[in-house]
Amino acid sequence: MEPVLDVRHLRVEYRGDGRSVVGADDVSFSVGPGEIFGLAGESGCGKSTIANAVMRLLKPPAEITAGSVRFQGRDVLAMGAKELRSFRWREIAMVFQSAMNSLNPVLTIGEQLGDIFTTHEKLKRRAARERAGALLELVGIDPGRLKAYPHQLSGGMRQRVVIAMAVALEPRMLIMDEPTTALDVVVQQEIMAQIRDLQRDLGFSVLFITHDMSLMVELSDRMGVMYGGRLVELAPARELFAQPLHPYTEALMNAFPPLTGPRAELTGLFDAPRTADSCGFHVRCPADRADCSANIPDLREVAPGRWAALTGGGAR
Amino acid sequence: MSEPVHLDESVHGDKPLLQVRGLTKEFQVGSVFSRRRVRAVGAVDFDLPKGRITALVGESGSGKSTIARCLIRLEQPTAGSVLLDGEDILRTERRRASRAYRRKVQMVFQDPFGSLNPVHRIEHFLTRALVLHGRPATRETLRELMETVGLTEDMLDSYPHELSGGQRQRVAIARALAVEPELILADEPTSMLDVSVRVGILNLMRRLRDERGISMLYITHDLGSARYLADTTLVMFAGELVEGGDSLAVMDAPAHPYTRLLLSAVPDPERAGGYDPVERARLREAVLHPTDCPYDDGSCSAETPVRHVVGEDAGQPHWVRCHLYAPAPDIAHRVLKTADTPDPEAENTPV
C-alpha cells in the first residue's frame, strides 16, 4: 500500500554565522494509511524538527538541505505558498506541544471553531456554528460550551478543543507534538482514548511525538527512536518494547521508573552534548566497542521490519 | 485489624519530624465581598518521619501543592496545626515563617526557569542563602555545596540562562541545602525537566536522604517516580488523603478506588490485559459520585469515612479511607475480588 507520508533522507540544518548545527540528519520513515507512527527521543534529538519540516513550518536559520518529503505522492518541499495553505489543515493538521495555550483568549471557543469553516469551507456563520457544535460533541464536550472563553475550560478540555480544531477538516494525517505533556495522568489517559476513538472513526494517520516510551508503545503501531538528529531504531512498537536493539532505546526505556517489579537504581540518560569526536552517548553506551566511531551509523534491517543503527555485524 | 489508625503512634519508633493535624485551607471565590468558599485542603492528618521521603500523589487540583505552600507558610491555613519539635508553628509564628523555621524547612519549586533570578550569577543564590542564615560563605563551602548536587565549581560564575533545566534544578536544591535543613518540600521537582535528566534529580534526592538523613515531602503526579523514590506514599483526592502506606504496598495493592483509577491511567505496555475502559468508567463513577459508588455493597454510608488499616508492610500500616473497608477484613478482600473478576458467590453473601 502506498504510504500517506514518505520521508526520505531528510536533513535539516540550523545555520549560524559560518557554522551550522545539524537538527536532523538522513532521517527516513513512512507512515501508512490509518497507521499511528511514533517518534521518541529526549529534548533536542530532532523529533520536533522533523514534524515542523513535514509541515513546512521551519523558519530561518533552520533549512532543509537534503532529502524529500512526499505526501500521497506529492512533493511537499516543492509546494508553493497557495498550495501549502490548502495542504496544511485540510490534508495534514498539527497539535502543538503547548496547544492548551494556543487558543485565542479573547474569542469564544465557538468563534474560534467557526472560523475554520467560514475560512476554509466558505460557510455562513450560522452553518459554521452548527458544525462547530458537532465538532465539540465529537471530542466529548457539551456543545453548550461554545460560548465559553478558553480560560473557563480546564487544561484537558482546552486540549480537546485544539484536537477538535485539528480534525475539523478531516485531514488525512494528524501530527501531535507532545500533546499531553502538561496534563496529569488521568486527563492524559482520557485524551489518548479520545484520539484512538477519533482515529478509528475518521481513519486518519497519526505522527505522534513524545518522550514517554510507555505512552508511545501503548498508542503506536510502529515507532522510531531518535538520538542526536538521527533515527537509531525503527520497529513495530510492541516488538521494540519487548526487545530493544539499540542501547539508546534501552536507556530511554529505563529513564522512567516502572510501576511494577523490584525497586532497582536507575541510571538515567547521559546528558553530554554530541561533539565532533563523540556521538555523545558512547561514553555511557553499554555496547561500547572498539569499532565505534563519532558518527551514529546508518539504519540497517536487522530482522524483517526491524531497523537499528548498530555498528559491527559487517553490514555497514 | 480494621480499627482506625492511631495517629499518635509513631511508625518508626522515634518521634516524627513534622506532625500535621487537621490542616484545612479554604479559598475565597469571586469578589472581595463574596462569601463563597472552596475547600482546597480538608482536615488533613499526616506525619513526616525523620530521614524518610514521603510522596504526596494525586491529580492536578487535588490540593497537593496547597499543602506544601501551607507548610512553607506561603499560604495561611484556615485551621489545623503543624507540629515541629512539639511546637505548633501555626501558633508560634502566626503570620509568616521565622528565619529559624526556614532554616529547618526548605522548599524546591516546580519551575527552575522561574525560581532563579536571571540577573544574578549562581554564586549569588548560594551566598545569599548562607549569609542570611548566618553561615560563612567561603569559597570552600560554595564548592562543597556545588559538588554535593553534582555540579562543578566553575558553574558558580554562570548565569541561570547558561544552565540546562536539570542543572538549574540542582542549583535550586543546593540553595535549599545551604541552610542545612532537616526537611525539604519538593513540589514536582522533575515535571518540567527533560526525560534525560529526571532520574538524575531523583537519585540526588535519594542520596541526600541516605547520606544526610534529610526528610522530604515529594509532591508529584508521576506514580512511577513516587514508587521509585519514596518510603511512604500518601494519595490525595479532592483535598483529602484517601490512602497511605509503604510505597510498594500502595502501588502493588491499591485499596481505594481513586488510587486504582490513578494507577490505571498510567501508560504501561506491560500491564496484563491492557487498559480496561469499563473498569475505569466504574472507578471514575466511584470517585466522582461517592454517594453513588458502584462498589457499594451496602456498607457505605453518607458519613465521612475514617481510616482503616488493610495491611502492614515494612513496619508501616497501609490504611485507606473508604467505607468498603469498614467491616471485617475478609469483606475488604471480597470487594477487591469482585472488582477484579465478577464473583457470583460474593454477590449472594449477606453483608
UniProtKB/TrEMBL annotation, chain A:
Taxonomic classification: Bacteria, Bacillati, Actinomycetota, Actinomycetes, Kitasatosporales
Leader sequence residues: none
Keyword annotations from UniProtKB, A to Z: ATP-binding, Cell membrane, Membrane, Nucleotide-binding, Transport
One Pfam assignment: ABC_tran
Gene Ontology CC entries for this record: plasma membrane
Protein name per UniProt: ABC transporter ATP-binding protein
PANTHER family tied to this protein: DIPEPTIDE TRANSPORT ATP-BINDING PROTEIN DPPD (PTHR43297:SF2), OLIGOPEPTIDE TRANSPORT ATP-BINDING PROTEIN APPD (PTHR43297)
Family: Belongs to the ABC transporter superfamily.
Gene3D superfamilies found in the cross-reference section: P-loop containing nucleotide triphosphate hydrolases
Main localization of the protein described in the UniProt heading: membrane
This protein's record includes keyword Membrane: yes
Domain of life: Bacteria
GO molecular function: ATP binding; ATP hydrolysis activity
UniProtKB/TrEMBL annotation, chain B:
Keyword Nuclease part of the UniProt annotation: no
Example of a GO biological process term: peptide transport
UniProt cross-references to Pfam families, sorted A to Z: ABC_tran, oligo_HPY
InterPro entries linked: AAA+_ATPase (IPR003593), ABC_transporter-like_ATP-bd (IPR003439), ABC_transporter-like_CS (IPR017871), Oligopep_ABC_C (IPR013563), P-loop_NTPase (IPR027417)
GO MF entries: ATP binding; ATP hydrolysis activity
SUPFAM superfamilies xrefs: P-loop containing nucleoside triphosphate hydrolases
Swiss-Prot/TrEMBL keywords: ATP-binding, Nucleotide-binding, Transport
UniProt keyword annotation of Cell membrane present: no
Protein name, per record: ABC transporter ATP-binding protein
Annotated organism of origin: Streptomyces antnestii
